[in-house]
Amino acid sequence: MSYQAPVKDMLFCMKELAGLADVARLPGFEEAGEETAQAVLEECAKLNEGVVAPLNVEGDRNPSFWKDGQVTTTPGFKEAFRQFAEGGWQGLQHPTDFGGQGLPKTIGAACIEMINSANLSFALCPLLTDGAIEALLTAGTPEQQQTYIPRMISGEWTGTMNLTEPQAGSDLALVRTRAEPQPDGSYRIFGTKIFITYGEHDMAENIVHLVLARVNGAPEGVKGISLFIVPKFMVKPDGSLGDRNDVHCVSIEHKLGIKASPTAVLQFGDHGGAVGYLVGQENRGLEYMFIMMNAARYAVGIQGIAVAERAYQQAVAYAKERIQSRPVDGSMPGRAPIIHHPDVRRMLMTMRAYTEGCRAMAITAAAAYDAAHAHPDAEVRKQNQAFYEFMVPLVKGYSTEMSLEVTSLGVQVHGGMGFIEETGAAQHYRDSKILTIYEGTTAIQANDLVGRKTARDGGQTAKAIAGQIEATEAALARRDSVAARAMLKRLKAAREAFVQVVDFMVGQAKGNPNAAFAGSVPYLMLAGNLIAGWQLARALLVAEDKLAAGEDTAFMQAKIATARFYAEHILAKVPGQRDAIVEGADSVTALAPDAF
Amino acid sequence: MSYQAPVKDMLFCMKELAGLADVARLPGFEEAGEETAQAVLEECAKLNEGVVAPLNVEGDRNPSFWKDGQVTTTPGFKEAFRQFAEGGWQGLQHPTDFGGQGLPKTIGAACIEMINSANLSFALCPLLTDGAIEALLTAGTPEQQQTYIPRMISGEWTGTMNLTEPQAGSDLALVRTRAEPQPDGSYRIFGTKIFITYGEHDMAENIVHLVLARVNGAPEGVKGISLFIVPKFMVKPDGSLGDRNDVHCVSIEHKLGIKASPTAVLQFGDHGGAVGYLVGQENRGLEYMFIMMNAARYAVGIQGIAVAERAYQQAVAYAKERIQSRPVDGSMPGRAPIIHHPDVRRMLMTMRAYTEGCRAMAITAAAAYDAAHAHPDAEVRKQNQAFYEFMVPLVKGYSTEMSLEVTSLGVQVHGGMGFIEETGAAQHYRDSKILTIYEGTTAIQANDLVGRKTARDGGQTAKAIAGQIEATEAALARRDSVAARAMLKRLKAAREAFVQVVDFMVGQAKGNPNAAFAGSVPYLMLAGNLIAGWQLARALLVAEDKLAAGEDTAFMQAKIATARFYAEHILAKVPGQRDAIVEGADSVTALAPDAF
Questions:
Q1: Which residue, A21, A242, A540, B309, could crosslink A234 as a Cys pair with Cβ 3.0–4.6 Å?
Q2: Which whole number is the average pLDDT over A518-523?
Q3: Which residues form the Acyl-CoA oxidase/dehydrogenase middle domain (chains A, B) (predicted)?
C-alpha cells in the first residue's frame, strides 16, 4: 500500500493555523517562509513516499534479527538510511554550526510526520538520534558536542536513550546501573538496560548511547542519577573509531509491532566496564534526560498522527475499491463501493477528523516551541513556553490514544480482509500500540498534565488557553453557516467543561490526590478533544473565508465538513467526560486492591 | 498466565438477574435449577482451567499449519478436543434425543464463556459445530438429523459454515458457488469459499460443511441461495465413512490473531464436483443459515466477554505484582504494586465493569431465549422472542466492541511488557480484533438493530425495554445509598437519551435512511451501554439487599462498587452519544466519496 504525504494539509496548518509567516520573522528563521516550507515538504515527501514507505511492510515481514551480539536490520533499511542522511534530514532542526539545517520545528514536525507515516520502525532511529543530539546540545561540553553531534547529524553515527531497567520503568528512581569514576576523568559503567530502541544495528558505523547511571555514593532516588555518553566504539582524538567498548546487545525483543525496530537488551561492563563520559554535572542526569525526553515525547505524538494518516489512506483506498451491497438511500441502482455506505463513511470521517485535528494541534504547538526559543521578547517566549509545555502531554498522550482508535477502524473498514496480515491494515493496529506506552505511558503524560502543567500554576496556563478558545467562539458567533453554528455549540460546551475540570484538578491535586489522578487520563483525553477541535474550529473559519474568496474550493469544503464532523461526533463527548471526572472520582478507587 | 472461571459472578447473573428459578420451571428444563447450574459450571471450569486454557499461548506460538491439503492443529488441541467431547460439552444445549444434555441457554452461555476465555481459537471449533447442529435441527430431514447430529454431538465429527466468497462478504447476494442437481436427488457443488473456520483440521474424523450455493436457474440475489450438506468424507448407509468428497483445503490464512484456529480456503468440485445434499427447500438457504448465524452471533458476543475476562484477570495479576512508584496519596511509605495507583485502578475498573455488565446482559438475554422457546404461554414466548432478538445485535456488537477496549487496556496496564509477545497480553489484543468482524461486522449488527429490530415494529420492543428500565429506576429511587443515587441519575439520563434515539431511528429509517444508518453503530453502542448498565443497576439493587442481610459481603460490596463505576464512567457517555446521532447525522455523509 503506497503512501502520499498530505503536503497540502500540512502547509495549511503551518500557514493558516500556526502562523508560519510569524515564525519566519523570528531571528534565525528568516529563510523559513512559505516557499522554503513547500520546497522542504515536497523533497521530504519524495524520499519518504519513494524510498522509506515501500520498506514498511518488508520490515514487518522480515524484522531485524539478532545473532551473536550483532543485529541485522531489514534488507533495504541501511541503504534507505544512507539516503536519508545524505539528504540532510537528520539535521533538519539542528544548528547550522554542527552541520544542521536550522529549520524551525513548525516545518520539522511535518517532516517527522512523513517519515513516520512511511515507516514507524525505520523512523525510530532518527527520532532517538534527535533526542541524543538535543541532550548533548543542552548539557554536553563543547568538546563532546564537536566530537559527537556533527557525526550524528551526518548519519555516520546514531544515538540512543538508555533509561529503562527491568525494575525501573516509569519509576526511574529505581535505576541501578552504576558508574565508577576513573583517574582519567572517565567512568566505568556496569548494569543492564532494556527496551533500548536501535540499541544495536548495522545502519551506522557507531552508536552513541546516552545512559542513566548512579555514580558510587550518589544520593538515592532520582537525585542521584547522572547521564553518560557510552559510545559503541571508542572515539580516538582524531575522530576515527577505536576499540569496541564494553557494551553488548545480548538479545532483542519479540514484539507486537514495530518489528523492524530492534529493541535491545544492553549489557554494560561484563568485561571490565564500559567506558562512559559524564554529560553535564553529576546527579543532574534526569534533568538532561527530560530535555531529550520532551523532544521525544512530542515526536511520539507525531508518530500517532503519522500512523493514523497511513491507516486512513489505506482504508480510503480499500473503501473506494471494494464493492459490496446497494446504498441504503437508493442512490445507485447496483452494488456500490463500500465508501457509499453511511457507516463506512462514519468510520473514515472519524479517522480523518482525528488525524487532521491532531495534526493541527501538533503543528500549532511546534510554532509555540519556535517562538519560545527564538522570540526576542522574553515575555512572549515565556508565554509560548508555557503553552508548549501544556501541549506536550496532549500531543503525546492524545494523538497516540486516538491512533489506537483510528488504526482499529482502519482494520474494521477492511472487514475480514483487515484481519489477514497480507492486507497490511493489521500492521498499523499492531505498530500503534507501543505509542501509548513508550516515552512515558498515557498515565505518565496525564500526571504531568495534572501536576506540573495544571495544578502548579493554579490553572493559569489552562485558563489562558480557554480564553483563546473563547475568542474563537466569538469569531464563530459572527458566522451564520450551519457548520459554524454546529462548531460553536460544541466548542463552547467543551470549553466550559474543560474549565470546570481544570478547577476540579487545581482544587483536588493537593488535598485529594486520588480524586485528581483518578481523572488524569480522562482529563488528558478531554483536553485533547477540545484543543484539537479548537484548531479545527480555527481551520473552519479560515476555510469559510477562503471559500468565499473562491480559493481552492474542494480543499476548503472538505476542511469545513471535517471540522463539523469533529464538532458533532468528537467534541460532543466532552461534557460526558467532564461528568465522569468531576462526579466519578470516588468510584475509581472504591474497590480496594485486594478485592480485585 | 492461568485462568480462573468467574463461577460466582456467573451464578449471580443466572440466579439474581436472569431468573434461573423461572427457567427451571419451563417444561423440559426441570432439572436445570441452581444445583445443576453450579455443578455444571464447576465441572466446566475444571476442564477449561486445567486442559484448554494452558493451550492458549501454545496455539499462538505454534499455530495450525497447512501442508498438501492437510491442516495440523497445535500440539495438544486434538487431545483436548477429545476430552471436551467425552465430557459431553458439545451437546450441552442440544436435545437429549440426539445425545445432548438439553440444558437451557441460561446455563450454556456461561460454559461457552469459559471455553472462550480459556482459548478463543480452540473454542471456535465447537462454536461452529453448534451452529451446524442448530441449522440441521431446524431444516434437516429426520434422516439427515440422525446421520449427522449425534456424531457432531459426540465430537466424532465437527461442523462448519460456508458463506463467504472473495466477492461476497457482508453481501451474500453475490454468492456464486453453484449446485447441479443429480438424478439421485443429490447435487454436485462447484466453487470457492474463503474464511472457513476449522474448514480443515485433524481433530475429528469427519467435517460436515454447510454450504451456501445456487442451484442452476435459481433467482438472482439472496432469494436464489440454497443450503447444502457437504461432508468431507462421504457417509455410508451404516454411518461409517466412505470416500473422500471433492472439497479440498487449498490454503489457510496468516492472521493477526486466533492463529491456532485454521481459516481455510475451500475449493469445491475441482475433481468432478463435491457431493452435496440439500437442506430444507431450495432457495431458502439464507433463512436457515440465519438461524445458525443468530446462534453464532450470540456466541461471538460471548467470545467478547470471554476474552475481556481473560485480559482482565491477567492485568489484575500483573498490577498486583509489578512494583513501581509511591502512591500519590501517601498511603504507603515506599513503592507500591501499581494497583495502588489511581489510573491503574481506573483501567482495571473499566475492564471489570464492561465485562460484568456485558456478562449480565448476555445471560439475561439467554434466559429470554429459553422462555421464548419453552414457555407454555404463546404471548410470553412472543415477548421473550422479541426481547431476545433485540438483544442479539447488542450482545454481538457491543460485547465485541468493548472487548477491543478492554484488551487494549490490558496491554496498557502492563506498560512496556505488554508490547512484548512473551507476556501474553498482546495476544488478547490481537485475538479480539476478529470479533467485531466475523459473523457480521458491527455495522451489520447495527443495521439489523436499526432495521429489523427497531424500525420494523415502530420502536415497540425498544420502548418496552425502556419501560422495564423505568421500573428499575423507580426501585433505585426508593434507595438512599450513594451508589443507588449515582446509578439512578445516569440510568435515567441514558434511558431518556435511548428513547430519543429510538424515535429518531423510527422517524428517519424510511424517509432519510442515510441519517438513520449514519448513526446505526453509535446507536448500537448507546443501547449496549444502557442495557448492560441497566443489568448492573439491577445487580446493585440485589447486592444492596444481600449486603443488608449480611450475605457474602465482599462479593456484594464489589458488585455495588462496579455498578457505580459503570454508571459514572460508562453510562455517563450516553447523552453525548445521543447528540452525535440525533444532531450529527448530516456531517457523516457531507463529504462526497470522491472528496476523500
A1: A242
A2: 98
A3: 161-270
